[in-house]
Amino acid sequence: GSGCPVAQQHPRYVAAKKNMPVHFICYSQEPHSMQWYKTAEDSDDLYGLDHSTSRYSIERKDNLINFTIFRITYEDNGIYVCDSKNLTAEKKQPHLCATELRVMGHSSIQQIQSRNTLKDTIIIIQSILLVIFISVPMLLFLDKVSDSISSSGDVPSFVAAGLEVEQMATYEDITPFRDVKAKWTVGEHPGEE
C-alpha cells in the first residue's frame, strides 16, 4: 500500500539556505538493512546513498540511520527516502513517506528592490480598482435616482415637504408690492424721500 512500511523518517519537509547543514533521521527496527535514496525533482531516477562521502555522512545506530548533508547546494534539491537496501536491484519504487529538501538562495539587493517595486505596483493597482469598484456603483445609483425623479414628474413626498417649508418662508419674507412710478408722477425725484 501507500503507507509507511518498516521505516519512519523525520522531518517530512525541509527548506534551508544554501551552504547550511541538513539532518534527516530514519527510524527502523533493522537499520543495517535500510539505506537512504535520493530522487531529483524532475526525474524518476533513484540514487542510492549508502556510504559517507566528503559532502554527506550516513551514521547507523541502534534503531536509526542519521543522514547529514554538510553544506547543501542547489543540486541537493529533491526527495529523500529511507527504504530497504535491495530496492534498486529489484527495480522497486520506494514507499511514499519521503522527505523533500528545498534549497533556498540568498537574495541580492537588486532582487529585493525589484520585489518591493512589484509589491508597491500591485498595491497601487489594487487601490485604484477599489476606488473604481466603489465609486462607479454609487454614481450609477445616484444617476438612476435622479432619472426616476425627473421622468416621473412627481416629486417624492420627502422632497416636496422640504420644498414647501422653504417656499413658505420665502413667501412670508416678500413685502407688499408698491408702485414706485406713482410717486414719480406726483413730482418727487427718485433720489429724494
UniProtKB/TrEMBL annotation:
A Pfam family reported for this protein in Swiss-Prot or TrEMBL: I-set
GO biological-process terms attached to the record: adaptive immune response; B cell differentiation; B cell receptor signaling pathway
GO molecular function annotation: identical protein binding
Keywords carried by this UniProt record: Adaptive immunity, Cell membrane, Disulfide bond, Glycoprotein, Immunity, Immunoglobulin domain, Membrane, Phosphoprotein, Receptor, Signal, Transmembrane, Transmembrane helix
Membrane topology field: Single-pass type I membrane protein
Sequence intervals crossing the membrane: 122-142
Record-level GO cellular component terms: B cell receptor complex; external side of plasma membrane
Cellular compartment(s): Cell membrane
Domain Immunoglobulin, first and last residues per copy: 11-104
Subunit structure: Heterodimer of alpha and beta chains; disulfide-linked. Part of the B-cell antigen receptor complex where the alpha/beta chain heterodimer is non-covalently associated with an antigen-specific membrane-bound surface immunoglobulin of two heavy chains and two light chains. Interacts with LYN.
Biological role stated in the UniProt entry: Required in cooperation with CD79A for initiation of the signal transduction cascade activated by the B-cell antigen receptor complex (BCR) which leads to internalization of the complex, trafficking to late endosomes and antigen presentation. Enhances phosphorylation of CD79A, possibly by recruiting kinases which phosphorylate CD79A or by recruiting proteins which bind to CD79A and protect it from dephosphorylation.
Descriptive protein name: B-cell antigen receptor complex-associated protein beta chain
Organism for this UniProt entry: Spizaetus tyrannus (black hawk-eagle)
